Amino acid sequence: MLNDAAGAPDNNPPAPNFLRRRSLADLLPRALSAIVLMAAALVSVWRGGLTFDLIWLGAAVAVGCEWQHLIAAPRLRLRFLLVGLGLVLCAFFAGKAWFGTTCAILAGCGIACALAAGPGKRIWALGGMVYAGLLLVSVEALHGSAEYGARSIVWLFATVWSTDVFAYFGGRLIGGAKLWPKVSPSKTWSGTLAGVFAGALIGAAAGAHGLGGPARGLPLFVLGLATAAVSQAGDIFESWVKRRFGVKDSSALIPGHGGFMDRLDGFIAAAVFAALVGASRGLASIAAGLFVWL
Q1: Which of 26, 35, 250, 254 has its CA 20 to 30 A from that of 1?
Q2: 154-209 pLDDT tens trace
Q3: Domain limits of the chain?
Q4: Angle, in degrees to the nearest 10, between helices 76-95 and 49-70
Q5: What are residue 212's phi and psi, to 5 degrees?
Q6: CA 105, CA 60: separation in Å to the nearest integer?
Q7: How many CB atoms within 10 Å of residue 77?
């Protein structure tokens, strides 16, 4: 737009009202998308069974396909087919707790994806299959406990979601030094630490509810600190992958949020970490390893 007096470009900043309207216009699809995603996640736990399996299978397939598209390798349709086939088989066998078979299928389909991707992208194609498969296997492994399965997933939701929210607002309210500006320019130390503490606290409150108070809540809080930190590391890892391939969002599937990788990066890392911790305890179930400490 030209300045009427001098014929020069008008470099004045937009009026505050315009910025507020644009901010509100951006916020609405983000808020609606977040509500839908949270509702789907909670319904998966509430309904359990086949509903849980299908919702998380869909999320894993979306993550796997976004990764394969992001790396810009040849034979995309073939790699999509391999991702879908591999994850469907993984969901079936993981639901039966046949994790050895599940890992073998994951490895086989990952190698097939790598061969299809061609030179220079083989490791990335294999990594995408493993990344999506780990999401599916870890949530199925945790949810498989009749006594603690649903609780473990709700605890993960509370921990990861709270970490993200408090890291976002904490970083903007407190500010300060950047955590890793070359990879994640907006992430600050203050926001990360606030998010980790809040995520551990809220997660412990949600996970220990009805289990016997501080005797269960304190170990869960300590575990939550590590889990929340891992979720932030997962966020940074996904940012690094996107920067490696020069993209801002993993896709445009979710209005206002980008793709499923963008929304689930921290949750994937946290779920895998929690499943490994639970399995290492050697208790009756993997989920029990998160809650039974005394």
Answers
A1: 26
A2: 999 999 999 999 998 888 888 888 888 888 888 899 999 999 999 999 999 999 88
A3: 29-144, 148-294
A4: 150
A5: 120, 20
A6: 15
A7: 9
Q: Where are the alpha helices (DSSP H) in 121-148?
A: 122-143
Other Cβ atoms closer than 10 A to 125: 26
For residue 2, pLDDT beyond 90: no
Query: Which residues are CB-contacts of 104 (< 8 A; sequence separation ≥ 6)?
Result: none
Measured CA to CA, the distance from residue 69 to residue 50 in angstroms comes to 28
Q: Is the pTM higher than 0.85?
A: yes
Buried b (16+ CB within 10 A) or exposed e, 40-67: ebeebbeeeeeebbebbbebbbbbbbbb
Only one residue has tokens 């939550």, namely: 224
Report how far residue 158's alpha carbon sits from residue 221's, in angstroms, rounded to the nearest whole number: 12
* CA pair distance 44, 51, nearest whole angstrom: 6
- Which long-range contacts (C-beta less than 8 Å, at least 24 apart) are formed by 257-265? 257/30, 257/33, 257/34, 257/37, 259/62, 259/66, 260/59, 260/62, 260/63, 260/66, 261/63, 261/66, 261/67, 261/70, 262/238, 263/37, 264/59, 264/63, 264/135, 265/234, 265/235, 265/237, 265/238, 265/239
Helix 149-174 to helix 189-208 angle, to the nearest 10 degrees? 150
Tell me which residue has tokens 């949530």.
Answer: 139
Task: With H, G, I as helix, E, B as strand and everything else as coil, classify residue 178.
Answer: strand
